[in-house]
Structure formats: C-alpha cells, structure tokens
Structure prediction request, 216 residues.
Amino acid sequence: MPDTTTIPVNVILASNSPRRKQLLEEAGVKFTVYTGSTEVDESLDEDQRAQPSEAVKKLAERKAGSVIQDILAENPVGLGIVIGADTTVVLDGEMLGKPYSADHAREMLGRLSGRTHEVITGVSVWLVMLNESEEKGGDGNVSLAFRSFSETSTVTFKELSTEDINAYVATGETIDKAGAYAIQGRAAVWLDAIEGDYYTIMGLPVSRTVRLLEQF
Prediction:
C-alpha cells in the first residue's frame, strides 16, 4: 500500500464499491463517494470485447463521465477530480462479467476451476475546472482533462468441487462481482497462484491511481 498522500483538490469516487472505497481510504486519499446513481451503459460490441484492456478503460471513462454530467447539471464552481473504475475477468480471451443468476455464477466458477485467468482493472481520472459565470466575474467555461489506464494480474484457482462452488454461491458473495468471486472474500482459499498487483484484482490498482492523482 502506498504512503499516505494529500491530493489538493476535491476528489470524487464514481463507484459504490466498498473495496475501492477501502483502498483509497487506506492510501490516505481524502475523497467523497458519489451518492447519486452510478449506473451506466456497460454494453460492449464484439470488437470492444475482443480487447478487454481497452474495454475496461472505456467503461471506466463512461462511469466517470456520467458522474461529471450530473455534477455539471448542478452548476457548481471550482476544481475537482472524478475517479471511475471497472474490473473484468478474462478467461481464454473471453470477458466474464458479473453473473446474472446463481446458475450463471456456478457456470463461471466451474470454468475458472483449476485454471489461470486474467483480472483487468481500468481506471479513468478526470480533472474538472468550472469557472464562475460572467455575472460573477468569470467566463463560465468548463475545462476537462482525463487520463486512463489499465492493469492486468493473473490468478490461478485450485480445482473446485461442486460442493465448493455451491457453498460459495450460497454465501451471496458472487453477486455483482466480475467472474463471480471476490478475491478478498471466501474465494481467497481457492488461490493457487497470483502474478501482478493484488489490488488490481480487488478492483483498484491503488498505487498507480494515487500517482496519477498527484500528477494533476
């Protein structure tokens, strides 16, 4: 985990993920979680799905951009940073998103059993400057700048029995998780090997994210 840092502007996390919130807090970043709706269109066409690392960046940009649109509608003034992130699990080049049912979660976990897969997290950081209106001495302009990146780690699971999978799905931990598991949860006992950044697997490569925040 990186050293505690101070970002000299208002930082907004465009995610309700408790894991991402936890990681930023542990890094010492002062931020607020966007409390409005963070639902965005996560559909991808075939060409986009064929490039998972680009796809997660695109989805992270959509999430941050959606929050920025909501913020601009409130006509605020000042400087802020918005962080969007998206994580996917990739097996044999195929993106495995969030399961839509318990049976779908079982199917995903069965495919991951005894196999090595990739976990890719995309991050998009936007800097927003909103000037005061002309009536108040400003020009009313809005300035936007953003940078996006993705990080990839690999995870190898041990062989999973039907009982292992059924018991895990029964915990409810598969809900809203890419690949139907949470690395920091009960699925941790399935790990055979990890290569890369553990926090990328959790959903936010926090060290690189903080370094990017400090560049703005």
Notes: The chain has seven helices and seven strands. The mean pLDDT is 88. The two ends are 21 Å apart (CA to CA).
